[in-house]
């Protein structure tokens, strides 16, 4: 797990403005495996509401799967039940305490018959916090970021 604490107590926005995968990789490369730094972290728990990914997936080129021209013949005979994706929901949980870090993510895809009406989208997610630091949970051998987040008020 990699933690990034801006030098300026109000500097999270400027760090986030330049944040990308290359910067996270550069930060991680500066951490020595046997560094004897004493680290003090607050306990925190973050759990998102279910977040709709439909718009983002359409923007990434998956629009056809959400349209009346979707082809899910490997899942269902289109002559009997023609299907399309209605929505994709994602939820994340991360907790850090004295015992360690626990993290989980779940994704659900809802499908409807092509002739049916779409369900209303859920309300947008909320995240309330105000003491800034970032965290990244990375897979050690590849460096892939599995979870990334920020804690803004560790007293909560």
Report on the architecture of this protein.
The strands form two sheets. Strands 2, 3, 4 and 5 form a four-stranded antiparallel beta sheet that branches. By secondary structure, the chain is α+β, with helices and mostly antiparallel strands. It has helices at 12-17, 21-29, 54-62; strands at 2-4, 44-47, 51-52, 83-97, 100-113, 133-138, 145-151. Mean pLDDT is 81; it is low at 126-131. A hairpin with a 2-residue loop joins strand 4 and strand 5 (100-113). The longest helix is centred in the N-terminal third of the chain and has 9 residues, at 21-29. It folds into two domains: 1-29 and 41-47 and 128-156, Roll (Alpha-1-antitrypsin, domain 1), CATH 2.30.39; 49-126, no CATH class. Helices cover 15% and strands 33% of the residues. It is elongated.
């Amino acid at each position: 797990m990699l933690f990034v604490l801006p030098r300026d107590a109000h500097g999270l926005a400027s760090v986030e403005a330049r944040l990308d995968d290359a910067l996270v990789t550069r930060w991680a490369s500066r951490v020595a495996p046997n560094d004897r730094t004493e680290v003090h972290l607050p306990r925190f728990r973050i759990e998102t509401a279910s977040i709709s990914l439909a718009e983002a997936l359409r923007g990434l080129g998956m629009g056809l799967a959400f349209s009346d021209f979707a082809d899910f013949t490997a899942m269902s005979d289109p002559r009997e039940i023609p299907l399309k994706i209605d929505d994709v929901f994602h939820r994340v949980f991360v907790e850090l305490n004295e015992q360690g870090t626990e993290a989980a993510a779940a994704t659900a895809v809802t499908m409807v018959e092509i002739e049916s009406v779409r369900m209303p989208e859920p309300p947008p997610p909320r995240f309330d916090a105000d003491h800034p630091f970032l965290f990244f949970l990375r897979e050690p051998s590849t460096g892939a970021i599995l979870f990334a987040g920020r804690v803004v008020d560790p007293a909560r």
